[in-house]
Structure formats: C-alpha cells, structure tokens
Amino acid sequence: MLKQIAFCAALLLPLTVHAQEPKKNNNAGELNWSIQASWPIPAKPIDIAQSLDNKKVFILAADAKVYIFTPDGVQLGALPVDPNVNAIDIAARGETLYLVNNKTNTYSAIDINFNQKIDIVGAPVRGKVDAPVTLVLFSDFECPWCAKLEPVLAELLAKNPDKLRIVFKHMPLPMHPYAEAAASAAIVAQKQGKFWEMHDALFQTTNWTPNTIDESAVRVGLDMDKFRADLASPDVQVRLAKDRSDAQSADVNATPSIFINSKPVKDRSLQNLQKMVNEALGTAGGAK
Questions:
Q1: pTM score, whole prediction
Q2: Helix 179-191 vs helix 195-203: angle between axes, to the nearest 10 degrees?
Q3: Are 65 and 78 in contact (CB under 8 A)?
Q4: Given the DSSP bridges, would you call strands 106-111 and 45-50 parallel, antiparallel or unpaired?
Q5: Hey, how many other C-beta atoms are within 10 angstroms of the C-beta on 34?
Q6: Sheet of strand 263-265: strand arrangement
Q7: For residue 132, which of 14, 95, 259, 287 sits 20 to 30 Å off, Cα-Cα?
Q8: HSE (CB half, 13 Å, CA atoms) of 174?
C-alpha cells in the first residue's frame, strides 16, 4: 500500500524536461541568398501568382485591381476586379486568370492577352497595301492546320478587298522536317516577285518529299539558277531569324497564330475573323 502511495505522489511532482539542442549537419553548407529583383507595388498586395515561363507576375491588390508586371517590374496592365476577390491563380503561361470571391462564394476564369506590336517591314503582303486593317499571320508551310486556314483567309480577304491586308510571317516548326527549307524557298521566291505563287504551291502539297520544294519552284516559273544561288545567301537565314524573333516577342509558340490590328486571335472561324475586322474598322455591320 505504501508503495502505491509513493508511486502516485511521484506522478504529482512537477516534471522537468530538458530540451535537446538541435542536431547540426556538419556536411551541410551555409544558406546563400541574394535579391534578384525588388520594385514597388501600386497598392497593398493581397495575393500573387507568377507564370511558369517567368514572363508575367500577377498581383491582387487592396484597390480591387490585379496588376500584371514583367519580372523586372514593368507594368503590363491592370485588371479591375470585384473588391471581395481575395485570391488569384493563373494558367501556366498567364493566359488565364482565376479569381475567388469570398463574399459571393464564386470562382471566375478570365482570358488574358495583350496586343502585340509586330514589325512587318519587308514581309509579303496580300491585299491592299494601305488597307486600314492588318492581319498578321505566323505560319508553317508543313503545318496541316495552317493549310486548313488558308481557304478561310482567302474568303476573308475576298469579303474585305479594300479594308484588309494579310501579312505573312515565317515560323517553321522543328517538328516538321521540310518546314524550314520551304520557308527559305518562299523567301527566295519573294526575291523574284513570286512569293504568293510559291506560298500557294507549297500549301497545296499533301505529300512532302525531298523533291517537293524544287518541283514547286519549277511549277511557279522561278529562275532555278537564281533560286539555288539565292538559297545559299545569308539573307535567307537573316529573314527567318527575324521572323522567329518577332514571334517570340509577340509570345507566339504555335502555328497558325493570327493578330488583327495587333490583337491576338483565338477563334479562327470566318465568322469571328470578320467580327474582329468589323471591330477594327469600328463598324457594326461591316462586310457581309
């Protein structure tokens, strides 16, 4: 009995625990860090998201706006949102903004894109050269989707002969084995004043072979000696590099990609393209 009382009394005594020092990893190096960028935000930040390609930073602020910056602090734009939006997220490349509203318990997805200024100097133009609406097309001659778009663009131009010009920019994709050679051939054809003839011949190709490009050049009546000589000219690679650089600057990563008066096009249907031409002209009806 006494042993039991003594044991219970021991349980009532204050328990003292000695904290152990954290173990150190003698093989671990010290933390190294440095500030990569620091810039002011226009209002108190609430939430932040950054695109996976590191090109855009989205900041939800207390003034009911989502500010969009480059990683070095250049403001690209500001989107007004409901004051009760309390959290944001984005798609991988920042092409969609997701909002959560804690008052209305709603989720919203908003398409995000930016107008792009694209240099078209020296690029081939189809249509009236001084037309008020400019459609810039980044395309690949071996891309099946680009080929399917061509009749749509031809019909669009036919509906807007005095209002629209189509500007072609080369973007041969590495997955297409003949695309770069085809683009080079079209650039050379442009030197002979037959870009659009070569363009049409290449897009009519359904079975690409090593002879396709030369056969197309002969069919459209190019001077073949000059054609072969010009293909070796560094000017061709300069032109290709320029178009690829313009595509990268315009955030283009696929073909076909279209811009109408600098505005990116997602819906490439004839109906939507005509609607965007009408909007660029400031007309409600436009061409029929």
A1: 0.81
A2: 150
A3: yes
A4: unpaired
A5: 4
A6: 125-127, 164-170, 133-139, 257-260, 263-265
A7: 95
A8: 2
Residues 6+ apart with CB under 8 A from 7: none
Q: Return the structure tokens found at 90.
A: 């984005």
How far is it between the farthest Cα atoms of the chain?
Answer: 118
| Closest to 281 in 3D by CA, of 132, 154, 115 | 132
Asked if residue 144 lies in contact with residue 178, where contact means CB atoms within 8 angstroms, the answer is: no
CB proximity list for 165: less than 8 A, separation 6 or greater: 125, 126, 127, 128, 129, 130, 131, 133, 134, 135
DSSP 158: H
Angstrom CA distances, 167 to 116, 122, 260, stand at 14, 10, 10
* Dihedral angle of Cα 68, 73, 76, 77, to the nearest 10 degrees: 50
Q: Which residues contact 139 (CB under 8 A, 6 or more apart)?
A: 146, 149, 168, 169, 170, 171, 255, 256
Q: What mean pLDDT is reported for the chain?
A: 91
Q: Using CA atoms, how far apart are residues 116 and 46, in angstroms rounded to an integer?
A: 29
- Give the DSSP letter of residue 174: T
Region of 286 please: left (phi>0), alpha (psi -120 to 50) or beta: left
Measured distance CA(235)–CA(191) in Å, rounded: 11
